[in-house]
User: Which sequence fits this backbone?
């Protein structure tokens, strides 16, 4: 039975989308890592609590299939702030978050970082 569970989780990993714009914060990548740890021995892995494993799989499968999105349809494509899903994706992009963090730094920190780095090769400063 563990082999069947393992194959189901592998199929779920294949279907789950991966978002490369969220480096280190992507749910699909996180799930793949957790499943790899949970099923270290592949099909031969002994599962301590099969019921809990099945519940976890069913929950993830419902999320992946947009079960709740279909069950509870939204009337607008925005959230309470009026921002669309695409705008949220753009704001949560790793590159954009890095730029925001850089903008938050004070002038003193920026100067300190600039002058504490060794000069790059090929530059004539």
Assistant:
């Amino acid at each position: 039975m563990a082999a069947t569970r393992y194959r189901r989780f592998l199929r779920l990993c294949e279907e789950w989308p991966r978002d490369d714009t969220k480096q280190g914060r992507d749910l699909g990548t996180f799930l793949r890592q957790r499943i790899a740890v949970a099923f270290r021995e592949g099909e031969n892995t002994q599962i301590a609590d099969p019921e809990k494993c099945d519940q976890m799989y069913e929950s993830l499968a419902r999320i992946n299939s947009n079960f709740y999105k279909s069950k509870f349809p939204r009337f607008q494509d925005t959230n309470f702030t009026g921002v669309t899903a695409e705008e949220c994706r753009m704001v949560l992009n790793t590159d954009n978050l890095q730029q925001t963090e850089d903008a938050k730094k004070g002038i003193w920190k920026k100067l300190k970082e600039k002058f504490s780095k060794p000069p790059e090769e090929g530059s004539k400063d």
